[in-house]
Design goal:
about 280 residues, alpha/beta, 5-stranded parallel beta sheet, 5-stranded antiparallel beta sheet, 7 helices, about 45% helix
Length: about 280
């Protein structure tokens, strides 16, 4: 099938033409310039190799039979220097075995013959440039994916380290809380605490025993402080001492404010039963 001849939409690209016959290069430049390509040319493949060391090309077109070296040998060298360039042999002579081998090993993209049909040659070159643009885009996307994957890998590693650090912090906090709870439980003085809304959120065994009848402790957690002592309200200032009676027991109660942060604040109550004074 002949490639599209709609050259008005042919992609632009940079071409290097190599042929030992200057008139061939002139004819090719005249034919291809109308498609908007940027074109360089060399009659010596060695000079073309030097050019490739400093310049990149989308498409390299070489004659096969040249006195310095064959087109296939030149394009093999060109592949080492510019592996992403598309390489085409254009020649009136051919060794099918060599051409087939070069195509199979990736040294050349296509073999075209002289004399050429102008429309077909332009169509083949436009198709080769489109192929090059597609490969470039695929490489660009692949590189972006590699970059994104590397970033995700780094982010996952950082997240894992953060989670591990947070888990360690939570373990330490939990251990500290358990220790405080055990210390609070062992204190013989009745102690309980409430939040800023007056709900009891903390108590020890001594407080629970004090609040209930003999041998029948009462856990006050979740109870409104005013249901225990109706006369109590949120203190305007810490109490140094306040006498109170509950469940037939008299005691002195002291209160201290607690404020860990704006959300965690309340009051700590310490009860001093009369028998312990």
């Amino acid at each position: 099938m002949t490639p599209t001849s709609e050259f008005s939409v042919a992609p632009t690209g940079k071409l290097l033409l190599v042929d030992d016959e200057p008139n061939i290069l002139t004819a090719l430049r005249r034919l291809l310039r109308q498609d908007g390509y940027r074109i360089d040319s060399e009659t010596d493949p060695n000079a073309a190799i030097e050019r490739l060391q400093s310049e990149d090309y989308d498409l390299i077109i070489s004659d096969q039979r040249m006195p310095q070296m064959t087109g296939l040998d030149f394009l093999r060298l060109a592949k080492e220097l510019r592996p992403h360039s598309i390489r085409i042999v254009l020649s009136g002579y051919t060794d099918l075995n060599s051409v087939t081998s070069a195509i199979n090993e990736g040294s050349i993209y296509k073999f075209l013959t002289k004399p050429w049909d102008a429309a077909q040659l332009r169509g083949h070159i436009a198709a080769a440039i489109r192929h090059k643009n597609l490969e470039d885009e695929n490489r660009r996307i692949s590189e972006q994916l590699r970059t994104v994957n590397a970033q995700l890998t780094e982010a996952n590693a950082q997240l894992a380290a953060l989670v591990s650090k947070q888990q360690l912090s939570l373990f330490r906090d939990e251990t500290a809380l358990q220790t405080l709870q055990e210390v609070l439980r062992q204190i013989p003085l009745p102690i309980f605490g409430c939040d800023h809304q007056g709900m009891v959120v903390l108590s020890n065994e001594a407080a629970e025993s004090f609040l209930g009848p003999e041998g029948n402790p009462i856990c006050p957690l979740g109870i409104d402080i005013q249901s225990l002592w109706p006369e109590l309200s949120e203190p305007e200032r810490p109490w140094k001492g306040h006498n109170i009676a509950i469940a037939g027991k008299r005691a002195r109660i002291e209160c201290r404010p607690i404020e860990l942060n704006a959300q965690a604040r309340g009051w700590l109550y310490m009860i001093f039963p009369e028998h312990s004074q």
